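Batch manifest, entry 17 of 40.
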Amino acid sequence: MALSAWGFTDLPSYTDTYDPNEKDIVIKTNNWLNDEAAEEKTRQGLTAFVALDDAFMSIASRIYLIRNAKETIDLQYYIWTNDFVGNLILHELLKAADRGIKVRLLIDDQNGIKLDGILRSLLQHSNFEIRLFNPYKFRYLRIFDYIFRFKKVNHRMHNKLIIADASIAVTGGRNISSEYFEASSKFQFTDLDILFYGDAVRHAQAVFADFWESTLSVDATKVIGTCAEHHLKALREHYEQLHHENHSLTEDKLYDAQSYLKELLEHNPIQWSKAHFVADSPKKILGTAAEHEMLYGQVMSIMGKPKQHLELASAYFVPTQQGTYYLKQLRVEGIKVRALTNSFAANDVAIVHAFYSQYRVEMLKNGIELYEFKPVLERRRRTWYEIVTGSVIPAKGKNKSSLHAKFFDVDGKVFIGSF
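Output type: structure tokens
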């Protein structure tokens, strides 16, 4: 593929005909658990899970999946930054590919061009496949996409998912970027992920397949081009040098977390329950998705109307007039409603707070409990990033925090994810 000086990319027409069948997806639980009881629970349609509110345990879980995968690793992310965390995970994926694991990486093209060189290098590996979701046509002057193709590029893929061997997965609110894992020098997001295995992985794998096979997902070589094979060798050497510099402390810190996760998986001291993995269909962007293929419809169908309580945490809580009326009606019926969102100072998107604040007084007057996240979350101890790198995050950046988690509880039914 040839690129002009303006980075113009000839994109395919967008039509979707692929329809994944979950029944065709085989969950290879024994690859990970080797436990008859766990396999039986999976056959019963149950799912085991571990909530990951700690930033280090969350990244350690992803690394655990990558290091222990035996056949495949599938990843789907909205944001993937060329920073410490982004390169740490890419290095782990490269090592997995080197030992024969098939890696499929789907990234939304909202990330810009800063990762292009690394992606081109990784594409030289026979075990790496990379696709970009809904790519921009004007690669280096994206303003033209917003002028001429605003309706198309304004719809993005917000999914955050990693699946190993079609058997075990991590999803939630965290993108692959340092600020989501307490490793940024500027500020830290407070977020929530979930590690899960069992029947819900079948749903997750079907969602990944749906997006991967969508015509909106374009082979990265058609968008960013290719490079010589020696660039892969140079990237591998660069990653090995970074790993060597931090090897001892990084591995010691990871070893403890990996041992903990191994104990959880092998001895199953966690609960199994009925779970569903839900997501918008990529057809939503094309305007062809049916109601049952949309996240909102799926969630409402599963969760139902609250009878006792509704508790939610949302970084960008904008109830709208219709939503405010709905919450007020719940209170009239005696249903407890509590919500946590960002304060103005903590919100990384100020305009969102402006839309939320116009409904705040009305909600409070009607008995809806509102809590706002403080912009400073004091961290007295060294973060994992400081421990493994020897770096010191400035106090302002270390303690500046913003809520990014999205989860809610309806009478004991819990949603954890991103929207």
